[in-house]
Amino acid sequence: MSKITVWFIKSALVYFMLAVILGLHMAVSGTTYPYMPIHAHFNLLGWMTMMIYGVGYHILPRFSGKPLYSDKLAEWQFWLANIGLVGMALGWIVRSWQGDSRMLLIFSIVEAASAVIFVINMFKTIKAAPPVPAK
Questions:
Q1: What separation in angstroms does the CA of 27 have from each of 14, 21, 24, 90?
Q2: pLDDT at 53
Q3: pLDDT tens digits for range 96-111
Q4: Residues 125-135: tens digit of each pLDDT
Q5: 3-state SS string over 6-19?
Q6: H-type helices in the chain, by residue range?
Q7: Is the distance from CB of 15 to CB of 46 less than 8 angstroms?
Q8: Residue 101 in contact with residue 91, Cβ under 8 Å?
Q9: Segments in the chain below pLDDT 70
């Protein structure tokens, strides 16, 4: 596996464990849990999306028969995805304590930029299969 695949899969596993820990904390905290959005984002953007990115970077180039368009874009995407998600988690805390959503918005944009980079890298990597000649 490429280093970017390993980085994404390892980060997915870390976010999965953080989501599990937050889930356990949520289970014993009563009916109101202010950090539920962090738990949800660690599950969806951390665990699931990071795993999809890692598997996508491993499998899609092989399926297309072409190398990954840009390893450098993939590395940028990795760092932006992680910075965006951690910043979003902190943004949810700031929002719950102070009612200010600016930090959450800024890091949400960073996270969205990461997703756009992934899509660009994948579009430039995959190609349509050549038509099958008629017999």
A1: 20, 10, 5, 21
A2: 98
A3: 999 999 999 999 999 9
A4: 997 656 667 77
A5: HHHHHHHHHHHHHH
A6: 3-27, 36-41, 49-64, 71-98, 102-125
A7: yes
A8: yes
A9: 128-132
Find out whether 54 and 122 touch, Cβ atoms under 8 Å: no
Distance CA 111, CA 88 (A): 8
> How far from each other are the two terminal CA atoms of the chain, in whole angstroms?
39
- Nearest to 123, CA basis, from 82, 75, 81, 68: 68
Question: Is residue 57 within 8 Å of residue 74, measured between CB atoms?
Answer: yes
Q: How far is CA 112 from the centre of its chain?
A: 9
Model confidence, pTM: 0.89
Between CA 102 and CA 76 the distance in angstroms is 23
Closest CA to 115 of 53, 56, 63, 42: 53
Residue with token string 């596996």: 1
Yes or no: say if 57 and 8 are a contact pair by the CB < 8 Å rule.
Answer: yes
- Residues shown for the chain: 135
